[in-house]
Design brief:
- This protein has 477 residues and is of the alpha+beta class.
- The protein contains 16 helices and 19 strands.
- The protein has an eight-stranded antiparallel beta sheet.
- The longest helix has 14 residues.
């Protein structure tokens, strides 16, 4: 979500703050002592087998850290297979580090597939392409475009790798569109014995259904084949609505547009709607000058509110009331992707689509009732159901509700307050985002949970790819 969507730059935020006697002279830069206490501890790194210190690891937001005693970076599939076959301790694969749950942390071997990158083949007749697992989503748009193709859909954070995105059913929005995993038509993995295994709908079908949301528990995914479509342009329209109006119109807007999402503002009386639709090149609007990152604006606004918390609702509404309708258009991958300069932590649950607005309403109500210290917009998206065993969208069309707080703010009280609401509506957590569910709760949500465990046991009989978190969410001994 870029700043032009909100039409809120620093000048307007500070102008709104000044109206209630608040200015940037109140020491709004830097972290308070309470905020600093929320930041992850500084790690020195473990001493490796060669006596040298191994660099510690941290995810993007800093809420997950670990001290692996070994870092592995295989240069090709043969070296990867040898490393796995000879492994004497656990291995966790790492991509871009955009998971907020403890999928990666390990004090054993941390493996990067940094050399496994790039689009390796494009089948123009089938409109499919093969891509190495560590390729970043952002780097695929232009090469595909030059060949006449595009991804069918994308998330708005494009600094993830294909391997990581597929492992957790990363998604964009669109009631007729599935997660990125639904567009995968084939995959290649190296299992826990160092063997290369291929799978598709027609070859190793059970492995295919497990691998398209594998949470790094089946082996090292080296590459995949993905269904694309002819290249296309998108037009994005964003506007602010009265909260109740937005809640009432959400499902109609969802059904009318290729992509629709909402951004609900905690403690406010407004909600933002965003639609994206395909347009012809001739209909493209003139490029608009970007005025910055909206999350940076909300960070500044958060610091203002910390100074005068009793005026929270007034300040947020004052800023939201200035928003005007915005339209921008361009190549799809340019419109989908957004830069994330401001770090945050995130909880996301997907509930049945028909319960989306009820669930969101209760979340907004509990934030106000408990006066939770959060102003970060709540993102609401729609995703088509699929048949992938551990997909949050398994056999049901879903509404994904993503709740965030800044990385240096305490998210635990906030997430603890809203998680029971998600569970009330039979929510399934995003595997890469913060949640408290164990294998007992997860297995009740996934009819194919036991089948996944059987495939996992066959792919990784030595349990190489299971850290403490994987054991907890899958119920492994």
């Amino acid at each position: 979500m870029k700043i032009e969507r909100l039409n809120l730059n620093r000048r307007e935020v500070l102008k709104a703050a000044a109206a209630v006697g608040v200015t940037s002279s109140l020491g709004l830069s830097g972290c308070s002592e309470a905020e600093q206490a929320q930041q992850a501890p500084v790690l020195q790194g473990a001493i490796g087998k060669d006596g040298q210190r191994v660099p510690p690891w941290s995810n993007w937001s800093g809420n997950q850290v670990s001290e692996p005693n070994e870092r592995l970076v295989p240069r090709d599939t043969d070296e990867l297979s040898t490393m796995i076959a000879k492994a004497k301790q656990g291995i966790r694969l790492v991509g871009a580090g955009h998971s907020f749950s403890p999928l990666v942390p390990t004090n054993e071997s941390l493996m990067s597939l940094a050399y496994f990158n790039g689009i390796t083949h494009i089948d123009k007749a089938a409109k499919q392409f093969e891509v190495a697992a560590n390729t970043f989503l952002a780097s695929a748009g232009e090469p595909l475009w030059q060949e006449g193709f595009s991804l069918i859909n994308m998330p708005d954070i494009n600094t993830q790798t294909f391997g990581g995105a597929i492992a957790t059913s990363t998604h964009g929005t669109g009631a007729t569109l599935g997660s990125m995993s639904t567009n995968v038509t084939g995959m290649s993995l190296v299992n826990g014995q160092g063997e290369v295994v291929h799978c598709s709908q027609d070859n190793n079908a059970e492995l295919f259904q497990a691998a398209r949301n594998n949470i790094g528990a089946l082996g090292a995914v080296t590459g995949m084949k993905i269904q694309a479509k002819d290249k296309y342009y998108l037009q994005e329209t964003s506007w602010m609505m009265d909260l109740q109006e937005g809640l009432e119109q959400a499902e109609a807007l969802r059904d009318k547009h290729r992509h629709f999402e909402l951004y609900a503002l905690p403690h406010a009386d407004y909600i933002m709607g965003i639609t994206l639709d395909e347009v012809d090149e001739q209909a493209l609007s003139q490029p608009q000058e970007s005025s910055g990152d909206a999350y940076e604006t909300f960070k500044t606004l958060s610091k203002v509110i910390d100074t005068v918390p009793f005026m929270k609702r007034f300040i947020i509404n004052a800023g939201a009331s200035t928003v005007t309708k915005e339209v921008r258009s361009g190549r799809n991958y340019e419109v989908f992707g957004n830069i994330r300069d401001i770090r945050f932590n995130e909880m996301e649950y997907s509930v049945p689509a028909e319960y989306g607005m009820k669930c969101l309403t209760e979340i907004l109500d509990i934030i106000k009732k408990q006066n939770i210290n959060v102003i970060f917009p709540i993102e609401v998206r729609y995703i088509k159901g699929d048949d992938i065993w551990l997909s949050p969208f398994y056999q049901r069309d879903s509404c994904a509700i993503s709740c965030h707080n800044f990385h240096d703010k305490d998210y635990k009280k906030y997430f603890a307050a809203i998680e029971p609401i998600f569970l009330k509506y039979d929510g399934r957590p995003h595997w890469g985002k913060i949640h408290s569910l164990t294998a007992k709760e997860q297995s009740a949500r996934y009819p194919k949970f036991d089948e996944f465990l059987k495939v996992r046991a066959a792919m990784d009989p030595r349990g190489l790819f299971a850290n403490a978190h994987i054991k907890n969410v899958l119920g492994l001994s």
